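Archive entry. Fields below.
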Amino acid sequence: MNAAEIDSLTAQAVAEAGAAGTADAVEAVRIRYLGRKGLLPQIMAGLKDATGQERGAIGRSANAFKTQVTAAVDARLAALRGAIQQGPVFDYTRPGAWRGPGSMHPVSLVIAEAVRIFARMGFRVAEGPDIETPYNNFEALNTPDYHPSLDTTDTFWLGVGAAGLAAPPYQASQLLRTQTSPVQIRMMQSHPPPIRIITPGRCYRRDTTDATHSANFHQIEGLYVDRQVSLADLKGTLASFAREMMGSGVGVRFRPHFFPFTEPSVEVDFSCHVCAGKGCRVCKHSGWIEIAGAGMVDPRVFGKVGYDAEAWTGFAFGMGVERIAMIKYGIPDIRLLYENDARFLAQFE
Ligand code: PHE
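PREDICTED_STRUCTURE:
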């Protein structure tokens, strides 16, 4: 092979490498020209037989053949690899993979179970919006506008800039409800007594997230208004709910507390389901877990909704759904409920 023939083969190989559409096609070019049984060894073999001047020219052409074809092959491979990386991540030609049906979220399971239990006691579900007025969330619930829970560090206000927050009144703006209690107000404003409702729903507070706090969480509100309702009715209702939800061994206790919209007010604890009251990490070694706030509807709230406080009495409660789910299913960290890892959720069928 003379120098001119080698040069033309070089051009041909470079063109073929450049035109190769796949990595396999590039590899075929490489084997054909540079491989052990390819053209390069033949060229080198020809060099032996060449003489004098011819030999130098063939040598230069052979070197050019090797470096140029190698470079063309490498460049084409790199270009193809780049094109793959820049191309669609999703392969539309792959058949779909069936991952099986999903499962009910523990929060949904607890709500569904609570709705069933309370339905048997004559409670119907009522719902309200997540975006509320300060009137429904605070004022009508006998919560004055200097109450700390209105503070920007506790409540998510909507449409209020930093300057606006320093300057009440808040009445012009809206908020993400901090509790399901405003549904009590909506219900009583629109329905005459008697009333028996539960309200499952999402609530929002500016809490820093940790193992037991989340900026959004769920409550189940209960409201029972009738003649001569007593604290004993409240306790009996919550105790029988606790037994059905957690099992017959569960204990219920009331601790005196304060809420602006109930009088008297209590906090409601269930005995710890994880350790059966003996004391463990989940109940912080007290044997009890706070599940709900509750109390007798304050006459002032009846006044706000136009009910005759002399004629009507009632109890209300608001319980934490995540709390119940955590002790019912032994979930150690509330954040697990919000990560929605399918492997975690699949355990609660
Ligand atoms: N809304 C109260 C809270 O979120 C709970 C509660 C509801 C208390 C009803 C009394 C009556 O803490």
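CURATOR_NOTE: The mean pLDDT is 90.
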